[in-house]
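Box 3.1 A note on notation
Throughout this textbook, protein chains are presented in two layers. The first layer is the amino acid sequence; the second is a token string describing backbone geometry. Keep the layers aligned when reading.
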Amino acid sequence: MDNSNQSAVQKGGFLPELFEVVRLNIQTYTILLALIGIWVIFFFTTGGTYLASQNVSNLFRQMSVTAFLAAGMVLVIVTGNIDLSVGKLAGFVSVVAAYLQARIWFEYLPDQPVLSAVLTVVISLLVGSAFGALQGYIIAYLKVPSFIVTLGGLWLFNGLILLVTEGKTIPANQPWFSDIAQGYVPVTWGWILGIVAIAFLFWNMFSSRQNKRKHGFQLRSVYIDLMATGFAALVILIYVYNVNNYKGIQNPVLLLAITAMIMIYLSNNTRFGRYAYAIGGNKEAARLSGISIPSMIFKIFVLMGFLSGVGGVVLASYVGYGTIAAGQGYELDAIASCILGGTSTLGGIGTIQGAMIGALIIASLSTGLQMMNVAPAWQYVLKAIVLVLAVLADVYFKKKG
């Protein structure tokens, strides 16, 4: 950037500051442009059906499981760790949910579909959280590298899935439970929820600015924050309008939106989030500042296990079965979503919003390629190319910074 532009920024000019924000966040805007580009390409190659209301509805439903896992994976990677087991943990939770629905509650609570669904969800979330706590304890307090622990977890859950299913498919399509991922929000409620989500975005923006001012951080122009938040609000309105032309907002997308809002608030506006980024930025400095690193790592893996439980419940409800292949490959999609969304493999940098965009890119690629009848082998090749390009971009922008 030339000297005149630097002077303008220092003087607080709106346009120079806007250009500086774009420059500093060029990777994020590049990812958004890539997503729009993917949609435009598939729109024309599929004769417009790619962005039809029904397909958009299915697209967001399909991304939900990956997005739940990616929401937790951001903080795991931010702290300099990795979790290779989340896909199979979600898969294990899904077969546990199916087993409870088909083998336990069917026998003991045959006429209580609501109670059986609630019990299934509660037990499934506890299972996910318990295994997250187990792995987190080994990583945080026994000092075993997360790569090794979660690789072992992947194999463990793969074996547990085979033990629970006994090599057979277990139905999980009982009333009420199947509505968790297959149901829709009524159109009127969809608009109300959309307005609530927009209100949250603006509230979170002003709350974040207040926190930054309180802690002495430099604030960018309020007009720039309003533009960014207004764009997000516009996207929400377009989405709600589109899916309401089909059947309405999908239940799993509503759950995902609630989860994302909680995770965004947790990472941006709480001590827990600040500590997580501090650990990833400089672990030794974080330790000297009085942050209990083992405690933080443990809590993050418990949270990751809980979100894996949520993903497992949604997976069982969406597919309608617990299968031996449950959760296969989801851990790779979750990690790829985080990286595509700007989470640095070096730790310390990453956002929940970016991970959601990354999950949407993964789902958009898969859906579009399937609609074009591209062979599965080439789908993997193209997704691999996109991921490697994202990592190269990450390295490039880090060097430029």
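The longest strand covers residues 170-171. The chain has 17 helices and two strands.
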